[in-house]
UniProtKB/TrEMBL annotation, chains A, B:
Keywords annotated in UniProt: Lyase, Metal-binding
GO molecular function: lyase activity
Protein name (record): Hydroxymethylglutaryl-CoA lyase
PANTHER family in the record: HYDROXYMETHYLGLUTARYL-COA LYASE
Stated family: Belongs to the HMG-CoA lyase family.
Transmembrane segments: none
């Protein structure tokens, strides 16, 4: 196993905030995202460029991106279609993360397109991007199974990835939208996909829906994945996937990697991350799923 | 890696109930433990024989054991001293699980003994047991670190295990009382201990304090451990260890092993286990940490 560094993308601003029904003030959103950045996380998926009718919480997408941007940070945004990509590019994002689902049923519910239509959208977005500095990543929702269509074989994922790669996409995120993966499946998928598509940068976007968030993440790491999404306190889910609970928790992952002495890109200040998570908990007004924010790190010793 | 079966011990009745401040009726306790047994878990640590002054919740230990016992079930009970062992034997338990902590500070707080005194207690208990049917297991609390003394090396565990083994103990549970382990540490500990003590039956008792319950469990499995403790809904903790949160969740473990096609001893009915967990949630009156009980299994498909 190679000991290359792990790259973490915070998705609190997008996958986290999109699930919150009560309006979060833009300045509170920025406070949290800046806190995450100040703790050492340099790649932040800050928002989605979607219809404000479908996700009103993210109607301040342009403002969030505009205020967050600085030279040290990579700001990404999720987009479901060409319209979203145009708005994202206009706002000045560094990376566009286009989402489509492996499952027809989920893709229809999530972005109101067939998978074929979504593929056409992504090719149009490629043409829109005319700066070599702007990265295009494609996230494959329900990669490890769909709550409506059930489980399917990795060949279904291969078939869609092949089409993307033939069109020049080289960064793909495998999203376990409703936590249907397990360590054995992760290993099988990653091993297969790395063998079939050796030049693609694979990321994992995992949810803790069935308690397997961290164990799946470590299985992905052991199979060679080095790019992971996570959210502060483990908030989030998918508004169009019943039963979807939070993302894997950013500070719990950082804590695990630090305890295991697995190197992470950039130096991360775990205590700052935990403090930001506590701040987020106060803003949201309910207990977050993160465990390290409650228990403290394994390195803390209680004085008698 | 060998594909031998996994053995699960439910500790809801002991490690779970001991943390509950409000009195749980004995018949409710039995309802839950019978439900766990009916779902296919045949080894149950049902209670502790401790002073009812220190843990009033378990003052019905004798009644619980008496009512639970039948030919198909192995009923275990935790004991902290000779007095507890005498009471446990009198009640007719199949197995005595003696607890002592690796850490002097925690052992003092937990059972009010030095480690040396606890070792003397266990040797006296050995002499008490005069039926070959009654099993003696020793649980080593704070094996992977202590909230008061911090982290320590596996050699500290080796030294205590050596004394136990020289006195004929051949079943030892490594307890991560406050969730200080990580997968790397688990692997290092298990590999070392299996090499030094090849004839000891090692069990793992893990807590999810820092979110690593399942990932540590799988690391233990991969290192060759086949015996694991767990509690329904992930309830429990240690009343004398600050920051200790719940055990690894029984039904989430069963779900993970089933999804990974890892064989478990006896045929377990996961749905019955989940139903019992929901019953427990109603009895306790707060939301339990279990994830599968909320999301359903990964095999469930939602009809459109």
């Amino acid at each position: 196993m190679d000991d290359s560094e792990v790259y973490l993308t915070d998705v609190t601003g997008r996958d986290g905030f999109q699930m919150e029904k009560d309006w979060i003030e833009t300045e509170d959103k920025l406070l949290i995202l800046q806190g995450i950045f100040n703790a050492g996380i340099k790649r932040i998926e800050a928002t989605s460029f979607v219809s404000s009718k479908s996700i009103p919480q993210l109607k301040d997408a342009k403002e969030v991106v505009g205020n967050l941007k600085n030279e040290e940070i990579t700001v990404a945004a999720l987009v479901p279609n060409v319209k979203g990509a145009e708005n994202a590019l206009e706002s000045g994002v560094d990376e566009i993360n286009f989402v489509l689902s492996i499952s027809e049923t989920h893709n229809r519910k999530n972005v109101n397109h067939t998978v074929r239509e979504s593929l056409e959208e992504v090719y149009s977005i490629q043409k829109l991007i005319n700066s070599p500095q702007t990265v295009l990543n494609v996230s494959l929702g329900t990669t490890f199974g769909c709550p409506f269509e059930g489980k399917y074989n990795v060949s279904k994922v291969c078939s869609i990835m092949e089409q993307l790669i033939n069109n020049g996409i080289d960064k793909v995120t495998l999203a376990d939208t409703t936590g249907m993966a397990n360590p054995k499946k992760i290993r099988h998928y990653i091993t297969t996909l790395k063998e079939v598509f050796p030049h693609v940068q694979l990321s994992l976007h995992l949810h803790n829906t069935r308690g397997m968030g961290l164990v799946n993440l470590l299985a992905g790491y052991k199979a060679g994945v080095r790019h992971f999404d996570a959210s502060l306190g483990g908030i989030g889910g998918c508004p169009f996937a019943p039963g979807a609970t939070g993302n894997v928790c950013l500070e719990d992952i950082v804590h695990m990697f630090m305890e295991m002495e697995i190197p992470i890109e950039h130096s991360i200040n775990l205590q700052k991350l935990i403090n930001t998570s506590k701040k987020l908990e106060r803003i949201l007004g309910y207990q977050l799923a993160g465990q390290v924010m409650k228990a403290g790190t394994a390195g803390e010793v209680i004085k008698n």
